[in-house]
Design goal:
- The chain is mainly alpha-helical.
- Helices cover 61% and strands 8% of the residues.
- It has helices at residues 2-26, 33-40, 50-57, 62-74, 96-117, 122-135; strands at residues 48-49, 78-82, 90-94.
Length: 147
């Protein structure tokens, strides 16, 4: 049962990634799924530890994280700042330009996901979202101790 569930979650992730990348490309944007999830993970105002994004959002795919970080920083959508308590750690902040880009990407991403997953079954999408919310551990953006 667990293996089947994991396989299905990977399939859903793959469908979502493909739909988002296609929607962004059709809109003539240079951004992709990795850029989108990177920006979406950053709370406006306080920022987020880079370590959190590296481990929780990107997991083992550190090369994708570095590429996304470099592209977003070069486009001035994010800023990196050293942590006050421990200068070895970096905190990622989304800029006002980044917030604007994220808003436009968010609209495209949500439309493409709805179309790709459940073109006319909104109730199923709401149930799936609720189940995934229950599985998500509470996030402590202030902690430097990230799994």
């Amino acid at each position: 049962m667990t293996t089947d569930l994991i396989s299905k979650l990977f399939l859903v992730h793959s469908v979502i990634r493909r739909a988002i990348n296609t929607a962004f490309k059709q809109a003539g944007l240079v951004w992709n799924f990795e850029h989108f999830i990177f920006l979406a993970a950053i709370p406006a105002g306080k920022g987020i530890p880079l370590k959190y994004i590296a481990t929780t959002v990107f997991g083992r795919d550190q090369s994708a994280m570095r590429r996304a970080l470099s592209a977003l920083e070069k486009a001035k959508l994010i800023k990196l700042k050293r942590e006050i308590e421990d200068r070895r750690h970096l905190r990622v902040h989304i800029t006002s330009e980044g917030i604007e880009v994220l808003a436009s990407l968010n609209r495209l991403a949500l439309d493409s996901m709805d179309t790709a997953l459940f073109s006319d079954e909104q109730e199923t999408l709401v149930k799936l979202s609720g189940m995934l919310d229950q599985l998500q551990p509470p996030m402590d953006f202030e902690s430097l101790q990230v799994a």
